[in-house]
Design a protein that fits this description.
This protein is an alpha/beta fold. The protein has 17 helices and 10 strands. It folds into 2 domains: 126 residues, Rossmann fold; 193 residues, Glycogen Phosphorylase B (Rossmann fold), CATH 3.40.50. The strands form 2 sheets. Strands 7-6-5-8-9-10 form a 6-stranded parallel β-sheet, sandwiched between helices. A 4-stranded parallel β-sheet has the order 1-2-3-4, with helices on both faces. The chain is globular, with a radius of gyration of 21 Å. The protein starts with 7 loop residues before the first helix and ends with a helix.
C-alpha cells in the first residue's frame, strides 16, 4: 500500500504564473515531506519528474544519507541546463525515458544515467480492426463517419485555454466535410460539469467519452492535441495530429527567453525534426488549425507521410519492459546505497 501525504493534483501546475498561485501549497508539502524523511528515513527515495519540487527533496535526502533514484528526468535539455550539475550532486541514479537523454547527460558530465525505454510502450498498444469497429458500435458511430479527436489536456486551465479554439475549428471543419464526428475524452480528474460551460451551444456532432481513451485515440482519423505526453501516445498509435498550446502571457514571456529546445512537442523532439505541425501562442488560432488539419486529412499524402514518421518515432522509444527495467535499477541503487 501507499500513504498519500499530499495529493499530486494540488501540486501539478505548469507555468511560472500558475506555480505562484500554488506556492503556499507547495511550501507546505516540501516542509511536511522533509520532516517525514528525518523522522522515518526510507531505504531509497524515488523521485518522478516535477524537478523544481523534487530536486529540493533530493537535497534533503542527500544530507540525510538517503540514496536517491530519479525516474523520468528533469527536462534540462530544454531549459536551465545548469541543473545538470545539481542533479549530479544530489541524485544517486538517473533513469531516463527519452532516447536522446542519456547521451545529453553524459555529454554534460553526468555518468550515473541510463536509458530504460519509455513506459508508454508497455501501456499503449495498437488495437486491431475489430476492437476499433466494436468501439464505434458501442458509441453508435456509423461506419463511414470520419472521427476527429479533440484532446485539450487534462488540467482545467489547459482545457479552458485550448478547447474553445478546438471547437471553433471543429465548426469550420463541419462546414467543409460531411459525415464527421468529434470525440472528446473526459480526463478521470474531471467531470462533465467542468466542461459543460465550454461546450454549451456548440451544436456540433460531439461525443464525450469517459473511458476507452486509447481506443478513442486509435479510432480517430486525426487529432487536435495539447502539447504533452499525449503526442507520444498518439505516435505509438500512429494517429496523425496537430499539436497546440497556449500559456499565460507572463509564463510565455519569461519561458520563451529561457527555453532552448527546438520544438515544443515531445514527438518532434524525439524525431529531431518537425514531423507534426506545432501551433503555439498567437499562432494557435482556428484558421491556422483548420489549415494544419486539412494538410493531414485522411487519405492525403500528408496523412500517409505522418503515419510513417510516427512509426519511426514509436520504434525509437525502446522495447516493452521499461518499468520493470527501472524497478531493477531502483532496487540495485537501494542495495548499493550511496546517499551520503
Amino acid at each position: 500500500g501507499v500513504d498519500i501525504m499530499f495529493p499530486a493534483e494540488e501540486l501539478a501546475v505548469v507555468g511560472i504564473a500558475e506555480v505562484l498561485s500554488q506556492l503556499n501549497v507547495i511550501r507546505r508539502a516540501l516542509k511536511g515531506i522533509g520532516q517525514h524523511l528525518r523522522r522515518r528515513p526510507p531505504a531509497l527515495l524515488i523521485l518522478i519528474d516535477f524537478p523544481d519540487f523534487n530536486l529540493i527533496l533530493a537535497a534533503k535526502a542527500k544530507k540525510l544519507g538517503i540514496p536517491v533514484f530519479y525516474y523520468i528526468s528533469p527536462q534540462v535539455w530544454a531549459w536551465r541546463q545548469g541543473r545538470v550539475k545539481t542533479i549530479a550532486r544530489r541524485v544517486t541514479k538517473l533513469a531516463v525515458i527519452l532516447p536522446f537523454e542519456q547521451e545529453f547527460f553524459q555529454r554534460h558530465g553526468l555518468r550515473q544515467v541510463e536509458f530504460v525505454g519509455h513506459p508508454l510502450v508497455d501501456q499503449v498498444s495498437r488495437p486491431d480492426r475489430k476492437a476499433i469497429s466494436d468501439f464505434r458500435a458501442r458509441h453508435h458511430i456509423a461506419p463511414g463517419c470520419r472521427l476527429i479527436g479533440l484532446l485539450p489536456g487534462s488540467r482545467r486551465k489547459e482545457i479552458q485555454a485550448m478547447l474553445p479554439i478546438f471547437l471553433k475549428t471543429a465548426a469550420l471543419l463541419k462546414k467543409r466535410h460531411r459525415d464527421i464526428i468529434f470525440l472528446l475524452p473526459l480526463a478521470p480528474s474531471l467531470k462533465q460539469v467542468d466542461i459543460a460551460p465550454l461546450i454549451a451551444g456548440t451544436n456540433l456532432p460531439l461525443k464525450i467519452i469517459t473511458e476507452e481513451r486509447y481506443l478513442l485515440m486509435a479510432a480517430s482519423d486525426l487529432v487536435m492535441a495539447a502539447s504533452g505526453t499525449v503526442t507520444l501516445e498518439l505516435a505509438l498509435l500512429r494517429t496523425p495530429m496537430v499539436v497546440c498550446y497556449r500559456l499565460s502571457a507572463l509564463t510565455y514571456f519569461l519561458g520563451h527567453r529561457l527555453i532552448k529546445a527546438a520544438f515544443a512537442s515531445l514527438v518532434n523532439l524525439v524525431a529531431g525534426r518537425e514531423i507534426v505541425k506545432e501551433l503555439l501562442q498567437k499562432d494557435f488560432t482556428a484558421p491556422n488549425l483548420l489549415e494544419a488539419v486539412e494538410d493531414i486529412w485522411p487519405g492525403s499524402a500528408g496523412n500517409k507521410r505522418m503515419r510513417k514518421e510516427l512509426a519511426e518515432v514509436a520504434a525509437s522509444l525502446g522495447h516493452q519492459g521499461a518499468s520493470a527495467k527501472a524497478a531493477r535499477l531502483a532496487i540495485a541503487t537501494m542495495e548499493e546505497g550511496g546517499g551520503s
